[in-house]
Here is the input.
Amino acid sequence: MAATQNRVSISPAGGSELRAAAALLIAGAGLVALSLLLPHPSGGDTTALTLTAAAMAAVGVLCSFLVGRVPRGAVHLLLGGIVATTALLIFESGIAVGQYGTIFVWATLISSYYFPRRIAAFHLAWLLLVYGIALLEVENTAGYSPLTRWIFTLVSLGVVMLLTTAIVARRARADERARRFFDLSRDMLCTANMDGYFVELNDAWGYYLGYDREELRAVPFIERVHPEDRERTEAEAAALFEGAETLQFENRYQARDGSWHWMRWSSQLSPDESLIYARATDVTELKQIGDEREELLGKVQEMATHDSLTGLPNRRVLEEQLPHAMARARRSGSPLCVALLDIDRFKAYNDTHGHLAGDGVLRECARAWDDALRGEDTIVRFGGEEFLVLLPDTAPEEAAEVVERLRERTPMDQTCSAGLAAWDTVESADDLLGRADAALYLAKAGGRDQLALAGAPA
Here is the structure.
């Protein structure tokens, strides 16, 4: 994937190495100046030493401004030049004294830290060569033969190089192991700076979102957050900067193909508060599964409480709503009525036209009657061709008007009979429904296509 093909270091070529070499030049110039200010052996060329130190300082300052713009190969030449200049300082001092040898140690440390052992060994060989020439040319070797001093330098700097390269190699192996774990994680791991830009990212970012590392680093993180989630994300970031830890924070992040992915974040500040460590998990599929589950549960709930043919609430809803309506009526002292509607001669229609046509009649009646009801009324399919209407806060006279309006709107040239009962605040729900059913029977027995009012409870 693109993400695995772009392991480009975030540091510019030659950046850290050049910065270290520039510091070495400036420090070396300072060492020369200090050696001239303090008591030192006579016989050296003070003017030459001063000019050489000034040149070193000037080059060091120039290099510090060129960090990130100089190729790494140039740093090798610069280190070689520093070593040669140090040999020149020894020659100009007139004596093989130890203070300038300190620059040799620093140069060896830099080459051993930043470059592989073979390259560091090449730098050391160059150092020993120019130092050997300086020892042969200097007037005073401070009581030791040039060969003895050269051997001492070989041993001491060789140990420095071997120890430093061993430590760096061990650290590199540890970093590589950490990098492998970093890249193998299926979670999206990253670090970000305090300006909101990504610094390090693992391969999972490319796997889930399609970006390579440089694309992700190119813009602030917030720019690819869904507009509706940005305010929440900025608030979460503000809390993180104040010391809070982000746990299970979710927002939407745009993938390379323009799609939106739900991300679940955990993050915290580094101990020095210079970086943000974060882990993101793509939970888009989990969100989709959750949405589908909610939709399925809604459908199941709909099927459990609504009649599949007409879409009206079924008797289960009535069993829940009627007791609540009776309790409210009792508390408020308001009237409550129920009505049963039955499509006339429906069995004969079914036998003549077929069940599919009969189902059509049931659907059309349910739609027409439901549209004709007031907002506070409820109609349920009671069974077969019977429908029950619950009329809260409705006196019998007003309830009769509502039922007559429903009968008038019976569609498809059908007629219906109805039985209406008013609750007396004492009888049970079953007794109330029984009286409404008895009234419906009277309407049917009286010739159909009419409304009958239930008598008072016994």
Observations:
- The beta strands are 188-193, 198-201, 246-254, 260-269, 275-282, 336-343, 378-383, 386-392, 416-422, 451-453.
- The CA atoms of residues 116 and 169 lie 8 Å apart.
- The longest helix spans residues 146-184.
